[in-house]
Write a structure and sequence with these properties.
- This protein is an alpha/beta fold.
- 36% of the residues lie in helices and 23% in strands.
- It has helices at residues 26-46, 62-68; strands spanning 2-5, 10-12, 51-55, 58-59, 72-75.
- The strands form two sheets. Strands 1-3-5 form a three-stranded parallel sheet, covered by helices on one side. It has a two-stranded parallel sheet with strand order 2-4.
- The radius of gyration is 14 Å and the shape is flat.
- It starts with a strand and ends with a strand.
Length: 78
């Protein structure tokens, strides 16, 4: 199995959208999703072993999608 978890008090804070709206705005966000998050989600789906996501705190935005992409999801009360 592949175990995926976050370091520290959270699983994943999500994408940094601070620069969204500058330049081409929505296109920037879509490009970031295509470049970084989509390949990671595809790798989870194509993994030859079960993917276990251990959610140890905040899983916001794209981080929540990443947590839910696991085959088995284990979450802490926090």
């Amino acid at each position: 199995a592949l175990l995926v978890t976050g370091a520290g008090r959270g699983f994943c804070a999500g994408a940094n959208l601070g620069g969204a709206g500058q330049g081409s705005g929505t296109t920037d966000v879509l490009s970031m999703m295509e470049t970084y998050y989509k390949p990671l989600a595809r790798a989870f789906a194509d993994a030859p072993v079960p993917v276990v996501t251990a959610v140890n705190g905040v899983a916001a935005g794209a981080g929540a999608s990443l947590a839910l992409a696991g085959d088995i999801i284990v979450a802490a009360r926090s």
